[in-house]
Fold this sequence. Notes:
Elements: E1 7-11, H1 24-36, E2 41-44, H2 56-70, E3 76-79, H3 85-93, E4 102-106, H4 115-128, E5 133-137, H5 139-142, H6 148-157, E6 161-166, H7 171-180, E7 186-189, H8 195-200, E8 205-208, H9 215-226, H10 230-247, H11 254-262, H12 279-292
Parallel strand pairs: 1-2, 1-8, 2-3, 3-4, 4-5, 5-6, 6-7
Amino acid sequence: xxxxxxxxxxxxxxxxxxxxxxxxxxxxxxxxxxxxxxxxxxxxxxxxxxxxxxxxxxxxxxxxxxxxxxxxxxxxxxxxxxxxxxxxxxxxxxxxxxxxxxxxxxxxxxxxxxxxxxxxxxxxxxxxxxxxxxxxxxxxxxxxxxxxxxxxxxxxxxxxxxxxxxxxxxxxxxxxxxxxxxxxxxxxxxxxxxxxxxxxxxxxxxxxxxxxxxxxxxxxxxxxxxxxxxxxxxxxxxxxxxxxxxxxxxxxxxxxxxxxxxxxxxxxxxxxxxxxxxxxxxxxxxxxxxxxxxx
Length: 295
């Protein structure tokens, strides 16, 4: 089971038309572009998918579009999380998981629970989830860091908690997780800039934002890392470093959507309170993409 989530998963965007409705045609094109260029699995309705401003009906339509485009070619992970534990449980209990291989569930945000609160939250989710759970620690967004000892306690106590997407941008925390994790538990990078170092240190790959714009090279980079081909992997890492920095310099997903617009894959449109990337940033991205094919 865990091998399904080794390599590169993409945290797929939700494309919007200029009228802010979901652009299902663009979404289909992004799915096909990524699968045809070698990425390993798709994560639906995460932060990059602007899940907090997508309605329940829209979420179901997005899932259906991705499933249809995917046609069982790669595993699918569905984002179901929040800071209201009973509401998360309710959504899990009312979700049709046909064709869904796992859920990605963010550590509770805003409420700033203690480590015991975080543990009890995931314990409650574990009891009701019919599919494996990938926990998601992103303290820069939640204002609450799930410490390695809490992550590892959950990994040891619940068989259906199979992985953590760690996105604290803290290499030290990654290393503690990798050092002490159970054998089959997966540590997945949620930081594009650290994805290769984490993989080389024993991680299982990445759930990536940038990967959906450069799926071929990004996936090759991580696969090289998993194979221990360090030079080949870092050649690609250095080639992608500038654009990795650019897409996160103002906001995610505004940055990646600007790149995808330059590539004619979708509009850069986002929903408030997000705003599009500035013209200055878009200009830098355009210059990078123009030069990328020449290098």
